[in-house]
Amino acid sequence: MTKSLKVLLLLPFTVFGFASLSYAAPDAETAYIFNSFSFLVHGFLVMLMAAGFCMLETGLVRAKNAVVQCAKNIGLYSIAGIMFAVVGYNLMYMDVSGWIGTLSIWGPSDELKTFGGENDATYSSGSDWWFQMVFCATAASIVSGAVAERVKLKAFFVFVVLLCGFIYPIQGFWNWGSGFLNAAGYSDFAGSGTVHLAGAACALAAAIFIGPRLGKYSSDGKVNKLYGANIPIAALGTFILWLGWFGFNGGSQLAVNDASNANAVAQVFLNTNMAAGGGVIACLLVSRIFFGKTNIIYALNGAISGLVAITAAPDTPTGYEATLIGAIGGLLCYGSLVFLEQVLKIDDPVGAISAHGTAGIFGVMVVPFTNEGATFGAQALGVVSIIVWGFVLTYAFLFLINMISPVRSSDEIQKKGLDSEEIGIEAYPEFK
C-alpha cells in the first residue's frame, strides 16, 4: 500500500477524531456551559423530590389530614426558595470564616460567577444558587412528614423560615462552605449528613416537642396502628423521590465538563440505583420473615433509606458495594422504625426520622470503607455536630414559637382532622 493511500484511508478518522484514543479538553466557555447546565438539570430533578415527599406523606396520613400535607409541602418549598435567597445562601457560602458566612441578601453578582469574570468561574452563580436551594428545601421536607397530623400549619411555616434561613445554611457551611468539619476531613459527597441527617435531627426534636398523635398510644402504652389513606400514592411518591435522587447525587459531582466527570456521574447514577434496590429487597425479606407478609410501607422506607445511605459516598463504591450499603441502610431503618415507635414512643407517621436519620448516620460512618481519604473520627465529629445543632435549635425555636401561639393542634381538631380546620377542603369527599 502506498504512503498516499494510507494517508487517504486515515484521513476520515483523523478529521473525526477516531484516530486518537485521548479525549480532547473542551474550551473554557464550553466547559462553563456544560457545568452550569448540569446544575440546572440536576436541580430540576431535585425539585421533583418535593412532589415525591408530598405524595409520600399524603399517602401515609389519614384521609382527614391529606390536604394539609399538600399545603405544607408547597408552602415549605416556596419559603425555602425565598429564605435561601434572602439570607441562606450567603450564610452558607459568602465570605465565610470559622462558623458562619455573611448575613446579607444573595445576588448573582456577589461571587462574580460569570464567564470571563474576575474569579474565572467554571459555572454560573445562578445555577449554583438553584442547585443549593433545592437541597435546602429537601431538609425542610423531611420535617414535614415527621410532624404530620398534629402540627398547626402556621407554626410549621414559621419554623420552616428559621430552618431554611439559619439552621440548615449554617451547618451546611461547616462542610460544603469550607468550615470546621471540612477542615477536619469530614467527607459527605451529596449530603447523607449535611441534608438528610440535618433534617432528621430537626424532625426528631419536633416530634418529641409536639408529642404523638391523638390515639397513637393507649393509656397502657400499647401502640395503635394509624394506617395511611392511600398507599398507591405513597408508592408513587417513593418512585418520584427515587428519580429525583439521581439529580441529588449526580449533580453533586459539580461538573460534567470532560469525559472523566461524565464517567463519574454515570458511576454515581449506577450506585444510587443499586443502593435503593438493595434497601427495598432487604426490607421485603425482613418483613416476610418476621411477619409472614410483605410490608409495603417498610419496602418504601427501604428504598429511601438505601438512597440516603449511599448519598454520603455514591462516587467511590462499586455497584455491588453500593447494593450492600443500601441493604444495610434499609435494615437499620427497619430496626429504627420499630425502636422509635414501640420503645421510645416517638410518633413519626412516615418514618422520616429513621429513613433519613438512622440511615444518614450509617451512610456517613461507612464512607471510610470505600474512601481512603476519610477517617472515622472526622465522620463521627460530623454526625455529632449535625445532630446536636439541629436538635437543640429546633427544640429552642419551637419552644419560642409555642410561647406565642400553640404549635400542636387541639385534640378536638385532631379528631375532626386538620383539613377541616386549616383548609376547609376534604381530600376524598366522595368516599364518606
Give unreliable regions as ranges.
Answer: 3-21
Main sheet attributes: strand count, strand direction, barrel closure = none
Binned strand content: under 5%
What is the CATH first-level class name? Mainly Alpha
Give the overall form.
Answer: globular
Order of helices and strands: HHHHHHHHHHHHHHH
Secondary structure: helix percent: 55-70%
- CATH topology annotation: Ammonium transporter fold
Q: Count the strands?
A: 0
CATH superfamily: Ammonium transporter AmtB like domains
Mean pLDDT over the full residue set: 90
**Whole-number count of domains:** 1
The CATH architecture comes to: Orthogonal Bundle
Distance between the termini: 86 Å
Give a description of the structure.
This protein is 68% helix and 0% strand. The chain has 15 helices and no strands. It is mostly helical. It is globular, with a radius of gyration of 23 Å. The protein has one domain (28-406, 416-424): Ammonium transporter fold.
